[in-house]
Amino acid sequence: MADPIKEAASLRDVANADKKAADAALYAAQIARQRERYAAAYSRCSDGARQEAARGICVAAAVFENDAKRMPTRAKRAVELLKHAVFMLDPKAPA
User: Fold this and answer.
1) 27 class by beta-carbon count within 10 Å (0-12 exposed, 13-18 middle, 19+ buried)
2) What pLDDT, on a 0 to 100 scale, did the predictor assign at position 93?
3) From first to last of its 95 residues, what are the pLDDT tens digits of the chain?
4) Which contiguous run of DSSP H or E holds residue 81?
5) Is 1 exposed, middle or buried (0-12, 13-18, 19+ CB in 10 A)?
6) Distance between CA atoms of 13 and 33, rounded to whole angstroms?
7) Residue 54: what pLDDT?
8) Which residues, 6 or more positions from 82, have their beta carbon under 8 angstroms from its beta carbon?
9) Which domain of life does this protein belong to (predicted)?
10) Residue 36 in contact with residue 43, Cβ under 8 Å?
């Protein structure tokens, strides 16, 4: 007879792994979408100062995206930073 506590712990571990995989896929899709939005907003923007600031924000997002390989929660920060970069370039851009 299997130990119910060990079985529950095993099921919890599987569920946690599934959640991490789902979160990683979600954040990857969100990052891709925000990068597309960034590229579109960057091409429309003619203000050099805004472009420079947005590039800096995008570089910071890339650092968080790289960190997400070890710490998956960092991908959420990358998405937020990319949204800020888009907003910097085009405050009226749809979310």
Assistant:
1) buried
2) 82
3) 568 888 888 889 889 889 988 998 999 999 999 999 999 999 999 999 999 999 999 999 999 999 998 888 899 999 999 999 999 999 888 76
4) helix 74-89
5) exposed
6) 30
7) 96
8) 31, 34, 35, 37, 38, 57, 58, 61
9) Bacteria
10) no
List the one residue out of 20, 50, 54, 48 whose CA is nearest residue 35.
Answer: 54
Nearest to 57 by CA among 26, 19, 86, 93: 86
Residue labelled with tokens 């390989």: 69
Question: Phi and psi dihedrals of 47, rounded to 5?
Answer: -85, 110
Tokens of 78: 């990358």
> Which residues 6+ apart lie within 8 Å of 84 measured at CB?
57
DSSP 27-76: HHHHHHHHHHHHHHHHHH---HHHHHHHHHHHHHHHHHHHHTTT-TTHHH
In this structure, how many other beta carbons lie within 10 angstroms of the beta carbon of residue 42?
18
